[in-house]
Design goal:
Strand order of the largest sheet: 2-1-3-4
Strand content: 25-35%
Number of helices: 4
Order of helices and strands: HEHEHEEH
Helix content: 25-40%
Radius of gyration: 12 Å
Shape: globular
Distance between the termini: 23 Å
Length: about 100
């Protein structure tokens, strides 16, 4: 896996899902993220970060609730959402940031 900082600097949108294994809403988001990934294909990356394994990243990005989604483009956070979100809304946010 690439280093996180290198990954978020990609010119394409990178959606980071900060989640936890014990989190019910996080589990509910799994099929939503799979659907979005299938629809956006290679135009964006979707990365899952377990907040219990990567506490330093969770702290750096002030993750206080899971799931929290942050969309990065060229190393900048351009959108953030905590909680469950519908696939069409998530896909729309990603599509707005295509190169």
């Amino acid at each position: 896996m690439e280093k996180f900082e290198d990954l978020i600097k990609l010119p394409m949108p990178v959606l980071v899902d900060f989640f936890a294994e014990w989190c019910g809403p996080c589990k509910a988001m799994k099929p939503v993220l799979e659907e979005v990934k299938q629809n956006v294909g290679d135009k964006a990356r979707i990365v899952k970060i377990d907040v219990d394994q990567y506490e330093e990243l969770a702290t750096k990005y002030r993750i206080q609730a899971v799931p929290t989604f942050i969309l990065f483009k060229d190393g900048e956070a351009v959108w953030r959402h905590s909680g469950v979100i519908h696939s069409s809304e998530l896909q729309g946010v990603i599509e707005k940031h295509y190169t």
